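It is worth pausing here to work through a concrete case rather than discussing structure prediction in the abstract. The textbook approach is simple: state the sequence, then state the predicted structure, then interpret. We follow exactly that order.
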Amino acid sequence: MRIRRLGWAGVELEDGERRIGIDVLCDASFFEPFVGEPLTPLPEPSGPYDAALVTHLHRDHADAPALAGALRAGAPVLRPAPEDGSGLERAATAQAEGELAATGVATRVVAAWDTVRHDGLTFHALPAADGTGDPQVSWIAELGGRRIVHCGDTLFHGWWWRAAMRHGPFDLALLPVNGPLVEFPHRRPASPLPVAMTPEQAAVAAHLLGAALAVPIHYGTFSRAPVYFEPEPSAPAFVTHARERGVRAQVLEPGEALDL
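Step two, the predicted structure:
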């Protein structure tokens, strides 16, 4: 099993025969008016993908044009339910939803705790809590005899124990660590609390999941106060907190790969 970290929260998993992408992001131009150009690279996907997963439909986790270019013909994109409600409620997901529809890729809505099997691959959707209230799941991917959990940009929550009971042990946990503070125009008044896990919270989550190895994601690429701000250098802080809890942690730079 090889894990290649893409930019931001994106990763690729491959076992020599099959390859999948999770939360792929290549084009961040939509975000630049608010937080500037990405501070770290956004490597192109290797492709071709036998399936792709998105944890939620924010554009920085669901780059539909990049996915369409990387997917094999007929390969599915597994995703959570669409946002409902008013236009303002759907403001953060509308772009990715529109792009997915325009590309014509095959999508499948998967609810938390559901399992999908496709062409020898197994995926489990886990409950997750999006920091701005939009639908989100975390994903477990099983391939190459390994079990990987990818946690998008979830908040800390109480489902870690049940995830470990139902689907553990995990060979690798990919966890958001940047603990961002935000002031988004579609979510007012602004909250003073982080909208994704902090380094310490992510380390606790890795411990509760019983992950053999934890790798930080979702940090370092975007940060400009007050719209979206990462309060501290998150990856080294995560490694420190993880080791304090007896969790083996490793940082992968964008484009870097790891063999399990």
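Step three, interpretation. The CA atoms of residues 71 and 140 lie 19 Å apart. The radius of gyration is 17 Å.
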